[in-house]
Amino acid sequence: MVKISVYGAEVVCASCVGMPSSIETYDWLKAAIDRKYPNHSFEFEYVDIFKTHENEEKRSFSNRVIEEDLFYPVVLVNDTIVGEGNPSLKNVYEELEKYL
After folding, report:
1. Least crowded by CB within 10 Å, which of 12, 49, 50, 70?
2. What is the pLDDT along the chain (100 residues), one digit of tens a residue?
3. pTM of whole model > 0.90?
């Protein structure tokens, strides 16, 4: 199963003012991917980087986004970062194709 994760926050990052929110980006990506690949199942998850996570992987990557000042939302396909801030569908699709 291919996992698509979007790490973000309710508040738009300072460098991303004027762009869609993290949750809007998550919803947009999910809809676009489901339309492009209607015969495939993907695991989608949204992770708020400022909330407490019991899962070590989510907690660790959330801390990385904050500490390294990554532009959020940060989009991952499995464990590969495919976009920051305003992700490109082309980059997301290229990574997804590796698993299909």
Report:
1. 50
2. 999 999 999 887 677 777 889 999 999 999 999 999 999 999 999 999 999 989 999 999 999 999 998 989 999 999 999 999 889 999 999 999 999 9
3. yes
- What number does CATH give the domain 2-97? 3.40.30.30
| 65, two tokens | 């986004």
- Contact indicator for 43, 1 with CB cutoff of 8 Å: yes
Can you read off the two tokens belonging to residue 25? 């980006």
Q: Domain locations in the chain?
A: 2-97
